[in-house]
Amino acid sequence: MRTDAGTGARRPREISYAQAVREALREELRRDPRVFLMGEDVGIYGGTFGVSAGLIEELGPDRILDTPISEAVLAGAAAGAALTGTRPIVEIPFSDFLSLALDQIGNQAAKMRYMFGGAVRVPLVVRSPAGSGTGAGAQHSQSQEAVFCHFPGLKVVVPSTPYDAKGLLKTAVRDDNPVVFLEQKLLYKETGPVPEEEYLVPFGKADVKRPGSDLTIVAWGRMVGMCLAAAERLESEGVSVEVLDPRTLVPLDTRAIVSSVAKTGRLLIVHEAVRTGGFGGEIAALVADSEAFPLLKAPIRRVAGFDIPVPYSPNLERNAVPTPERIEDAVRDLLVQGEKRPAGRTGSVRS
Amino acid sequence: MIDRSPGTTVAAAAAAQAARTRMGYPDSLLEDLYRRMLRIRYFEEEIHYHISRGHIHGTTHLYVGEEAIAAGAAANLSDLDYITSTHRCHGHAVAKGTALSGLAAEMFGKRAGVCGGKGGSMHLADPARGNLGGTGIVGGGLPIAVGAALSIRRLGQDRVAVCFFGDGAMNEGTFHESVNLASVWKLPVLFLCENNQYGVSTHVRRSTNVQDLSLRAAAYGIPGRKVDGMDVLAVYEAVREAKEYVKTNGPLLLVAQTYRFLGHSRSDANVYRTEEEIASWRRRDPIPRFRERLNEEGSFSEDRIEDIEEEVRREVDAAFRYARACEEPGLEDLLRDVYAD
Ligand SMILES: Cc1ncc(C[n+]2csc(CCOP(=O)(O)OP(=O)(O)O)c2C)c(N)n1
Ligand SMILES: [Mg+2]
User: Fold this and answer.
1) What is the DSSP letter of B54?
2) Element housing B338 (H / E)
3) A122/A120 Cα distance (integer angstroms)
4) Whether ipTM exceeds 0.90
5) pLDDT tens per residue across span A313-351
6) Which domains are present in chain A?
7) Which residues of A are marked as active site?
8) In CATH terms, is domain B26-324 a member of 3.20.20.70?
9) Using CB atoms within 10 A of its CB, is residue A119 exposed (0-12), middle (13-18) or buried (19+)?
10) What is the CA radius of gyration of chain A?
11) Ligand 1 pocket, A72 CB below 6 A?
């Protein structure tokens, strides 16, 4: 444990997002012998992004199971195992491949408890990295969180920091429901403070990543960092942006969203996933249907991925999803509409 | 070396026998096979070079070591015959005859690339020349090949669909569903499994208890055969025969034994296999092996072989020079081609 020079305050160490996930896995696997991890190349290879590196050496092949390339049976077997006394964690190498497991996740795991009248619990976690930015093309770059939100019975987690990744994954493993845990592949190497002491981050509790008074941005996953950087730049223009990260989309902290918007009077939703059918629409509808609606000083706006498959060419790929420029322009535009003009910028505004 | 186990065809064995004495093939075919393999090898070596220097972004799955399969198969196919490919698609695309300039440009994400820079390493395609494209989804190409064969049947065409896939893909549901349907409907598909022993880090010993992958054909009532995937003539023969078979009788499963010499993808540290294992397969490198035969048993002088190598080298170099120089797609391309008009 390091201390801050001068203040003497204890400051947590910094570890990467991937390390944070690995720590959560290790701690939960050690805590509960019913927990096990299975997936393609999670053993000696350490997982496609190296997240499970070292775990098989430490915990053995009985707890860390390499599997054939068979996503449907992985998800379904996890459901079957979860029904019968164990607590599986499944790793799927890219979240784009969750569609191969979607029947077992969405039609089986998600529905069993309800269909069987509450007679069963299905404690499983499906972990998978999402997002673009790696030059891996249209089938390795998607953000599909909204798909899973559309299956009642699933919980959906999209962590944006190492701290949240660790605390939320530990909560996911202890949850008695199927949880889709969407890691952010571009964040794996990002570092952040993570305490050495054990902690959990509860589901359904949003986090204000930055307080502000002029406008609320709701964002999750990799977009949170991009929005925080944008908010920082906008501050120099005299604009105060609040960045709110719901952290779990199901369950959703509706109170936190509504009260933030009631306070600022402006809402921008930013997600990497394509706009149409994205979860941003759900949040917009939530606010439109809330006591915050009459307090809005400007329309609700979304900055999202364009409605296209993720292209390969680097410049196209970068521009297929929200960029800092698009986010900042949207904020400025909403402020103009809401009559608070950002200092230092007048004239035409793009959205 | 021809594989003498029960799955091997008699004709392939006989052909290999003939080849051992005097090859017994026209020089033009031998040269064609050699050129196809060289093109793939040099292309992949260039990619390897550029990716390690950061000129190409993203990941890539190189085909080095497996060239004999794509070359031997594609030499049997015309532009009218279809192939479906995998994430490891460069070799298939090169062998099928697409100009290297467009393939290289795609790797650099350029507008002149075969996919306009939108596809990239895993999605090289050339539908006009029968290449229905690579897929990043393991097992994703098998149903597509069945569909192509369905069109062939419905349109009364004299063509085949060759479906490339890996040993790892055999454990996806799509493999079983595709082979079964093609069998029931007797569709002209050649299911060509490239058994390079691994799916990423997982050896076939750990992904299936049936080590002779060709035996799986029995489950669907179709023939299963094996071929030495490090021997381009053996592959050529096996595919020639299989092609005739599937046109009239329906699908066939051909398993080519091979090995990838390099890592699974860009970031592979090869922790799951030994240096000795890699070296033992490298001794069976299909290219020097075939070169030796061209030289010793064929009518190819050393000079002529070197000329061929030099020519292919120049062709590949020119393609990469072109690819690096041509322009990036612009933002006006971003929203284009999601839907047909
Ligand atoms: C549906 C799906 N699952 C997992 C992956 C990750 N992945 C990419 S290649 C690969 C191994 C494929 O093995 P094989 O089919 O033998 O082909 P090879 O790479 O050996 O050529 C895996 C697991 C994927 N791309 N698609
Ligand atoms: Mg393989």
Assistant:
1) T
2) none
3) 7
4) yes
5) 999 999 999 999 999 999 999 999 866 655 544 444 343
6) 2-193 (3.40.50.970), 207-337 (3.40.50.920)
7) 140
8) no
9) exposed
10) 21
11) no
Which pair of structure tokens corresponds to residue A108? Answer: 């089986």
Please, which residues bridge with residue B252 across strands? B190
Tokens for B339, please give them.
């839907």
Give the residue from B47, B56, B57 with the most A CB atoms within 10 Å of its CB, the best one to mutate: B57
Q: How big is the A-B interface in CB pairs under 8 Å? A: 122
Q: In this predicted structure, what is the pLDDT of residue B269?
A: 87
**Nearest neighbour of B136 by CB, restricted to A67, A139, A314:** A139
Delimit the domains of chain B by residue range: 26-324
Neighbours of B7 (CB within 10 A): 19
Tokens of A247: 């952290």
Q: How many CA atoms lie within 13 A of B52 on its CB side?
A: 10
Residue A293 at interface with chain B, using a CB cutoff of 8 Å:
no
Of the candidate ranges A5-9, A101-105, A264-268, B178-182, the one whose mean pLDDT is the lowest: A5-9
Residues in a beta bridge with A302: A269
**Strand pairing of A267-274 and A301-305?**
parallel
Q: Which of A42, A69, A70, when mutated, tests ligand 1's pocket best, judged by the most ligand atoms within 8 Å of its CB?
A: A69
Cross-sheet strand order for the sheet of B224-228: B82-84, B161-166, B189-195, B252-257, B224-228
The model's pTM is: 0.93
Residue A123 φ then ψ, to 5°: -80, 90
Confidence of residue A186 (pLDDT cuts 50, 70, 90): very high
